[in-house]
Design a protein that fits this description.
heterodimer; A: 491 residues; mainly alpha; 75% helix; B: alpha+beta; Glutaredoxin; four-stranded mixed β-sheet; 47% helix
């Protein structure tokens, strides 16, 4: 009997976590982010970035392009590996290829916005900045260590990086509007959050419904848990109806619009509007609060419809298809992951996490990195996992270290990487990633604890430069005897 | 004359779609064609493909990193046919 009750409590915890994630935090961030990912994949030509990653591109262009290019190119894992291989063998070489591989997961629009909303903007920005700096660092180091074998790849006939394309004004406008939608839905500023219209809805029974929900999914606010609201139930119902209609409406849109397409899109717009409202339950009904967020979301949605008219039907269909493909690929695993994390949560004692990684120490950061390397979670699931650790008392420094290591390194990705660049290079790469992720966590943790941010970034860049200098000297030193021995053998 | 069509990219949804579109285009044009599909990185490299899926017609990469519209694929195949005639 007690076991059954215990299992029930785990189930409730899982459901509570799921409902809180689906309804409360992430809807206004993830829905626009998925549409943005689809647009990046379908509407932005890859050549607009790959043109900077060719063999002839100078280093000061190829490294930053490799670091920033992941925003466009790394949306789908199926482009990352072929591109990595292409940059390494036929493009700018090992260094930029490694930079691209390292920064990609951090600069991915879905991961970026999701971790920003669920973990805090500081973590998202730190992850982005530090992985760009360290990604370029690791790339330069790898290029220096393996400078001789890299030269062998320089000759090739066809140049796949010769293709050129630019991004047109209509694409910029469209992407800008999607970004605005994302920001309007997630920014926590008074202009957006303060309600200016308050309507009393005389809905009898809402109060009792809320009480029932609290009974079904009990929550402990002191532990950072959240319950399910009536509005949350409405949103989950809307999400389910999108799922049902989009399977046909968006999943088959590549064969042309069908009658489910406008239904699915309409429901998506409605969901965003409802999510932007606030509906606290009051005595004898509920209060509907309309604020700047709702107005902004509605206006931007209207703008998107107008901007979409400047595209050809096929382009829009491709965009919707790609969006739904990402949702299909990522969302079910995310839902399962969030549920599992919620169910496991009562089993993990905060003391464990606190003693392991409650402080910003070298050991704590390294343990976090190690956990990230050993464990493999589906795309985006690392974010709710990190949230769990955060709630249980993990320091934000080790948390960042974990977030940097987990998507970058998994057994599977290491295996593919070593197939492309060879086992030695792959192992050296893994070691540098582990080292730099630990370092990134330590630095960010120090900033959280009050150290000066500019000093930290400056120190990191200076340290990297020193390291590069030492390695450069070493490479020169190793190359020199080889030349002399070559000469003597000729004599 | 026969078209030799190769789809570069194994296992991804868009590679399957490209194959489907290409087969429909061949049917529409009413020509003979051989189909091949590969997920081999050495092949990607040979044709200079950076992002899957890629469409190779008569040993030439004609589309890369995207699934062209069905009408575009018909044009691409028709162009390959006229190139062969000359």
């Amino acid at each position: 009997m007690q076991i059954a009750e215990y299992l029930l409590s785990l189930l409730q915890s899982g459901l509570g976590n799921l409902a809180a994630y689906l309804a409360a935090h992430v809807l206004l961030c993830l829905v626009p982010a998925f549409f943005m990912a689809g647009a990046l994949s379908a509407l932005v030509p890859k050549e607009s970035v790959t043109r900077f990653l060719g063999r002839t591109a100078p280093k000061y262009i190829s490294y930053p392009a490799a670091a920033a290019g992941g925003f466009v190119l790394a949306v789908c894992s199926c482009t990352v590996m072929p591109l990595f291989s292409g940059i390494y063998r036929k493009g700018a070489g090992l260094g930029p290829a490694v930079t691209f591989l390292f920064v990609g997961p951090a600069i991915n629009i879905l991961a970026l916005t999701y971790s920003g909303v669920a973990l805090g903007a500081d973590i998202a920005i730190a992850r982005l900045l530090l992985s760009m700096i360290f990604g370029i660092g690791i790339g330069l180091i790898m290029a220096l260590i393996f400078s001789r074998s890299d030269a062998a790849h320089e000759q090739a006939a066809a140049d796949p990086f010769a293709g050129r394309a630019s991004v047109g004004g209509r694409v910029w406008l469209f992407m800008g509007l999607l970004l605005a939608l994302l920001l309007a839905g997630t920014l926590q500023v008074g202009l957006l959050t303060d309600p200016f219209v308050q309507l009393q809805l005389p809905l009898a029974g809402v109060e009792r419904f809320q009480a029932l929900l609290n009974q079904w999914v009990p929550f402990d606010a002191t532990r950072g848990e959240e319950g399910v609201t009536v509005q949350g139930v409405v949103l989950i119902a809307l999400l389910a109806s999108i799922g049902l209609t989009a399977t046909r409406g968006l999943g088959k849109v590549d064969e042309g619009y069908n009658r489910w397409t406008p239904v699915a899109l309409g429901l998506t717009a409605l969901t965003l509007i409802v999510a932007s409202l606030r509906m606290p339950v009051t005595a004898g009904g509920a209060e509907l609060q309309i604020g700047g967020r709702t107005v902004a979301v509605a206006l931007i949605l209207g703008g998107l419809v107008l901007a979409a008219r400047r595209f050809e039907a096929y382009e829009l269909q491709e965009w919707l298809f790609e969006t739904w493909r990402f949702v299909k690929q990522i969302f079910p695993l995310l839902v399962a992951g969030v549920f599992a994390i919620g169910a496991l949560r009562p089993l993990i004692r905060p003391e464990w996490i606190e003693s392991l990684a409650g402080q910003n120490t070298v050991v704590a950061n390294f343990v976090a990195v190690l956990f990230g390397v050993v464990m493999y979670f589906p795309t985006l699931v690392e974010v709710p996992i990190a949230r769990l650790f955060l709630d249980l008392g993990m320091h934000r420094g080790p948390l960042l270290a974990y977030l940097m290591a987990d998507p970058e390194l998994s057994l599977q990705s290491v295996l593919i990487t070593s197939k492309i660049i060879g086992r030695t290079k792959a192992l050296v790469y893994v070691a540098w990633v582990a080292l730099f992720s630990t370092l990134a966590g330590l630095l960010f943790g120090a900033w959280v604890d009050g150290a000066n941010g500019w000093l930290i970034i400056g120190g990191a860049i200076l340290g990297l430069a020193l390291l590069a200098l030492v390695l450069h000297r070493l490479a020169a030193f190793r190359a020199a005897p080889a030349v002399t021995s070559g000469k003597t053998s000729h004599v | 004359m026969t078209l030799h069509i190769k789809i570069l990219g194994g296992g991804c949804a868009n590679c399957d779609r490209l194959e489907k579109h290409a087969k429909a285009a061949v049917e529409q044009l009413g020509v003979d064609a051989t189909f091949e599909k590969t997920g081999d990185y050495a092949e990607y490299e040979r044709y200079g493909l950076l992002a899957t899926p890629g469409l190779v017609v008569n040993d030439k990469l004609v589309a890369a990193g995207r699934v062209p519209a069905p009408s575009q694929i018909v044009t691409l195949l028709a162009n390959a046919l006229t190139a062969e005639d000359q």
